[in-house]
Amino acid sequence: MTVTSPAEVVAARPQPRRGVSFRDAGPPIALVVIVIVFSLLSPQFRTLGNFQNILDAASVLAVVTCGATFVLLMGSIDLSASGVMAASAIAVALLVENNRNGNDLGFLGIVIAIALGAALGCLSGVLLMALKVPSFMVTLGVSAIGLGIAILMFAGVQPNIADAALESWATDRLLGFTYLTWIAAVCVLVGWLIQRYTRLGRYAFAIGGAEEVLALSGVRVAPYKVAVFTLAGAFYGLGAVMVTSQLGAGLVQAGADFTFSSITAAVVGGTLLTGGRGGVLHSTVGVLLIVVLTNGLVQIGVSPYWQGGVQGLIVVVAVAAAALPLRHRNQVVK
C-alpha cells in the first residue's frame, strides 16, 4: 500500500490558482462595474472624501471577514463573531481608561481583549473536535457564551472609554485615512501571508478540499482546526476593539450583524462555503463590494429598508453561482 506524505497531500489538494480564472475575476469586475455605475448616477459618490469614507467604513468588516475566511476555507461555518465581539468590546472598554473603574492598562488592555476573543475561538475549535457536531451549532453556542460574558461585565452600566490612544484609532488620520483603515490593511496582509506561506494556511485549504485524505496521510487535523478557530477569534477580538474605538464605549451590541455580513462578504468575494477555494484577498474584494454597494445606494437615495434585501439577494446569487460548477459533488458543509 502506498502511503501519501502530508507534503504530497498539500500539493495534491486544490491550490489557490496562480492564473486568473473567470470565477476569480468575476468579483473584481463586478466591483469596478458597480463603482462606475454609482459614479455616473451620483457626483458625490466619486469624490475623494467618499472614497475615504468607504475604506474607513470597510475597515472593521474587513478584519472580521479575515477571521471568517479561514474558517470557511476548512468548509466550516463560524456563527460566533457577534458574541465574541461583544465580550471583547466590553473587556477592552473596562481595561483601558474609562468611567467605570480605575483601570488604565492602555495597549495591554487591548491585547487582553484580543486574547479573550482568541480564547473563545479556541473554545469553539475544542468543542467542535470533542463533540463532533456541525460547526454552526458549536459556534452558535459559543456566541451565546460570549454574549453572556459581555452582559455580566456590562452590569447595566455602559463603560465609556477615555483612553486617548484608543480613541485616536477612529479619529486621527494618516495619508487621509483613519488608523482603523491602516489596521485593516495590515490585517489583510497578515492574513494573506498566513494563508499563503504557513502550514496553517495550507492545511486550512487541504482540510476544506480533502480532509479525509489529509487525515489518512498522518496529519493530525484536530490541532489545525482548533488553531484556525483561535485565529478567527483573535480577528473578531481586534474587530471589537476597533468598534469600541469608533463608538467611544463598550457595547454588548458591538458585534451585531457582523456574523452575517462577514460570511456574506467572503462568499460574494469568491470564498466557497464548502471550503478549499477562495482566500483573504477574495473576501476583501467581497467586503468592498458590500460596502460600496451600501454607500452607493445611500448616495442615490435608496431607502435603507431595501438595502438589507439587496444584500441578501446578492449573497444568494453569489452562492448559487459558486455552487453551480460543483453541483456534481455530493459534499456536505462541515
Verbal overview:
With 334 residues, this protein is mainly α. It has one domain (6-31, 52-325). Helices cover 71% and strands 1% of the residues. It is built from 13 helices and two strands, in the order αααααααββαααααα. The chain has helices at residues 6-12, 22-41, 48-73, 81-95, 107-131, 135-154, 164-171, 179-197, 199-216, 221-247, 258-269, 280-299, 304-323; strands at residues 173-174, 177-178. It has a two-stranded antiparallel ribbon. It is globular and about 60 Å long. The two termini are 29 Å apart. 48% of the residues are buried. Mean pLDDT is 85; it is low at 6-20 and 329-333.
Number of helices: 13
Percent of sequence in beta strands: under 5%
The succession of helices and strands, N to C, reads HHHHHHHEEHHHHHH
Separation of the first and last Cα atoms: 29 Å
Helix content: over 70%
Unreliable parts: 6-20, 329-333
Q: Sheet bearing the most strands, described? A: 2 strands, antiparallel
Helices, strands, pairings?
Layout: H1 6-12, H2 22-41, H3 48-73, H4 81-95, H5 107-131, H6 135-154, H7 164-171, E1 173-174, E2 177-178, H8 179-197, H9 199-216, H10 221-247, H11 258-269, H12 280-299, H13 304-323
Helix pairs in contact: 2-12, 3-8, 3-9, 3-10, 3-11, 3-12, 4-5, 4-6, 4-10, 5-6, 5-10, 7-10, 8-9, 9-10, 11-12, 11-13
Features:
334 residues, mainly alpha, two-stranded antiparallel sheet, 13 helices, membrane
Quick structural summary:
By secondary structure, the protein is mainly alpha-helical.
